[in-house]
Design goal:
single chain; about 375 residues; Alpha-Beta Plaits; Multidrug efflux transporter AcrB TolC docking domain, DN and DC subdomains; two-stranded antiparallel ribbon; 11 helices; elongated
């Protein structure tokens, strides 16, 4: 229950994480079977330094938690790191098979893409072997439920032995015990009844089923679906990462069973490209409008040409500096350039008017001095 999670998991974690330096505050949420702890650092803290400090504390705090509970650190992404969502379309495959395909093939392939911090799976059923125990048979064979759990856990394992030599040959002894089928699980011995082994199949029914779920994923009212969320690593370019993920999906598609395809449910690159294209179009319209206004109001082609030449040069220099410092052409940078056009035009007009004022003053001084020179020469 949430209260047990709060007392035995959340509280020990929060109390041991409070000593980390440069922390603003710590927030925690306890739910049924889950605990989330959010640590907010100061803005100037390096994200990987912070993750290292948290991992150090988690290693110590794990000893205070109940057995079987292992705290893990989230991906090195941000709150807006969910850049790409996809689902699988497979009419002839059940949700359990789709989830297995997502967890054991697609997810691992997409996590190799540069810039991807995590691929989170959602939907479907996580396949597992389930034992439906008959309590009457447990009582008949005098076996407890804990005995069944311990025996199944102990027999689902591989063990290694030492080697022995025989006839100038070395042999390595191994004990193979991993459960690979329902039959292997049914054959595990639980107890001994008068010299006769009591196996799992004698007291329980083994079946393949899905793990307990706290929710479902429905795609546009069409029914349940299985898919994944691509989380971008901190500091990466979202558009470049999405393009790399799409390229990887094309490679993964070749190895999928027949009839299984990808469906893109959320693609942030579409929003990015449309926003940049909109700002880019506005920038071009602004350049044309400013050029027409300058030509009409100055009504002097040489002055207008001097001002208009500075516009493309200033924009080009801006993009060169963006490229030099590794800054992408995003909405913020393009909007900044668009707003700066007005300042560039104002400065250019002031400079041109100031130049003409100085030229006019120099011309007036020259005209005023010219008659005096003539008078001096005539004398």
């Amino acid at each position: 229950s949430p209260q047990v999670i709060e007392d035995q998991v959340t509280y020990p974690l929060v109390s041991n994480l409070q000593g980390i330096p440069k922390i603003k505050n710590i927030r925690a949420t306890s739910m049924f079977g889950m605990s989330f702890v959010y640590i907010i650092f100061n803005d100037d803290v390096d994200v990987y330094w912070a993750r290292t400090r948290v991992l150090e504390r988690l290693n110590y705090a794990q000893r205070l938690l109940p057995q079987g509970i292992t705290p893990s650190l989230g991906p090195d992404g941000t709150g807006v790191g969910h850049i790409f969502w996809y689902t699988l379309k497979a009419k002839d495959m059940d949700l359990g098979e789709q989830r297995a395909l997502q967890d054991w093939y697609i997810k691992f392939a997409l996590q190799t893409v540069n810039g991807v911090a995590e691929v989170a799976s959602f939907g479907g059923f996580e396949k597992q072997y389930q034992l439906v125990v008959d309590p009457i048979k447990l009582q008949y064979y005098k076996v407890s439920l804990m005995d069944v759990m311990n025996k199944v856990k102990a027999n689902n394992n591989d063990v290694g032995g030492r080697k022995f030599e025989m006839a100038d040959m070395a042999y390595i002894i191994r004990g193979l015990g991993y459960v690979k089928s329902k039959e292997d699980l049914e054959s595990i011995a639980i107890a001994n009844n008068n010299g006769i082994p009591v196996r799992v199949k004698d007291i329980a029914r083994v079946q393949m089923g899905g793990d307990l779920r706290l929710g479902i994923f429905d795609r546009n009212g069409e029914g349940e679906a299985v898919g994944g969320i691509v989380v971008m690593r901190y500091g990466e370019n979202a558009n470049n990462v999405i393009q790399a993920v799409k390229q990887k999906i094309k490679e993964v598609q070749k190895g999928l069973p027949e009839g299984v395809t990808f469906h893109y449910d959320y693609d942030r690159s579409v929003l990015i490209e449309e926003a940049i294209e909109s700002v880019r179009g506005t920038l071009i319209e602004e350049l044309i409008t400013v050029s027409i206004v300058v030509i009409l109001f100055l009504f002097h082609w040489r002055s207008a040409l001097i001002i208009l030449i500075q516009l493309p040069i200033s924009v080009a220099i801006g993009f060169i500096l963006l490229q030099a410092f590794g800054i992408s052409s995003n909405i913020m940078s393009l909007t900044g350039i668009a707003l700066a056009i007005g300042v560039v035009v104002d400065d250019s007009i002031v400079m041109v008017e100031n130049s003409y004022r100085h030229i006019s003053e120099a011309q007036e001084a020259s005209d005023a001095a010219l008659p005096e020179d003539k008078n001096i020469d005539s004398k």
